[in-house]
């Protein structure tokens, strides 16, 4: 077995994915309190975040926060144990979900009203961030343990 230090574990990529997913989960948890920051009210928040009106209630937000935190934990765990096939599969599922959101964001760029807050947030923040995170998650998923030579 050879050790090649030039191929470090993708800890930065995993940290990036986990950090953004955790911040998103914290925002979802914050919104379960009834707070609407950064929007003025529930409707404005829903339109800015989703492009449509959806209730921001605990039965909807809590499972989303749990899913985001689980995804963050799986990606971090896989970065620490790259040989674990279950964690690799989980990280690939996270990458697939982020890729789907990125693809949906590209579709929404052409199908949603261009003057709406969601259009600009989707164009400048949501879609690019999902694409970057999908690539980072794929890097974590496909990284080969440097302690093994294949």
Distance between the termini: 10 Å
Task: Using the CA coordinates, give the radius of gyration.
Answer: 18 Å
SSE pattern = HHHHH
Structural class: mainly alpha
Strand residue percentage: under 5%
Give the CA-based shape.
globular
Strands, count: 0
pLDDT below 50 for ≥5 consecutive residues: which ranges?
A: 146-150
Kindly state the mean pLDDT as a whole number? 90
Tally of separate helices: 5
Helical proportion?
over 70%
Largest sheet: none
In short:
With 150 residues, the protein is mainly alpha-helical. The chain is 71% helix and 0% strand.
3D architecture notes:
- Residues 146-150 have low confidence and may be disordered.
- The termini are close together.
- The longest helix is centred in the middle third of the chain and has 27 residues, at 85-111.
- With 150 residues, the chain is an all-alpha fold.
- It has helices at residues 11-31, 42-50, 58-80, 85-111, 117-142.
- The chain is globular.
Layout of secondary structure:
Elements: H1 11-31, H2 42-50, H3 58-80, H4 85-111, H5 117-142
Helix pairs in contact: 1-3, 1-5, 2-5, 3-4, 4-5
């Amino acid at each position: 077995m050879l050790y090649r230090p030039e191929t470090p574990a993708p800890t930065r990529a995993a940290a990036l994915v986990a950090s953004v997913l955790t911040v998103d989960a914290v925002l979802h948890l914050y919104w379960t309190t009834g707070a609407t920051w950064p929007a003025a009210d529930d409707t404005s928040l829903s339109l800015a975040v989703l492009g449509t009106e959806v209730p921001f209630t605990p039965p909807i937000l809590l499972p989303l926060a749990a899913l985001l935190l689980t995804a963050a934990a799986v990606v971090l765990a896989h970065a620490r144990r790259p040989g674990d096939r279950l964690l690799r599969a989980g990280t690939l599922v996270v990458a697939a979900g982020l890729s789907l959101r990125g693809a949906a964001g590209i579709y929404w760029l052409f199908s949603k009203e261009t003057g709406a807050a969601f259009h600009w947030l989707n164009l400048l923040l949501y879609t690019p961030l999902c694409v970057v995170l999908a690539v980072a998650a794929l890097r974590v998923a496909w990284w080969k343990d440097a302690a093994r030579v294949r």
